[in-house]
Amino acid sequence: MLLIAKFFIALVALLHLYFLWLEMFAWTTKAKKVFRKFPPDLFEPTKSMAANQGLYNGFLAAGLLWSLLIDNPLWQVYVALFFLGCVTVAGIYGGYSVSKKIFTVQATPAILGIIFLLLHHFL
Q1: Could you tell me if 110 and 91 are in contact, meaning their C-beta atoms sit under 8 angstroms apart?
Q2: Within the chain, what is the greatest distance between any pair of CA atoms?
Q3: Section 90-117 average pLDDT
Q4: How many domains does the chain have?
Q5: Is the pLDDT of residue 16 over 90?
Q6: What DSSP assignment string belongs to 73-106?
Q7: From CA 64, how far away is CA 16, in angstroms rounded?
């Protein structure tokens, strides 16, 4: 169970590193292809806002990667649960307020990580 949980933790961290890159460094280029429903004329004016959002995604990725490096097994679970919980809440809110795809891409892997962490911890 722990190996599967760590897989999902790493997956969510990699996704958020991708979001960081997309929002901080590729907002006016690659992001236009990813966020096709976003009005094309708004990419340039929202560049600094997207970069700020990307920074937050980077913090989430850093916390998840940090959780994989912690030696104490209990603290490793606590830290991973905290950051996966943050991603889940953000994914639920984004799925509700912006697009259901956000729930699928962001929250679902985080929820699976939480489930496998809890199964490992309590079984």
Answers
A1: yes
A2: 52
A3: 96
A4: 1
A5: yes
A6: HHHHHHHHHHHHHHHHHHHHHHHHHT-HHHIIII
A7: 10
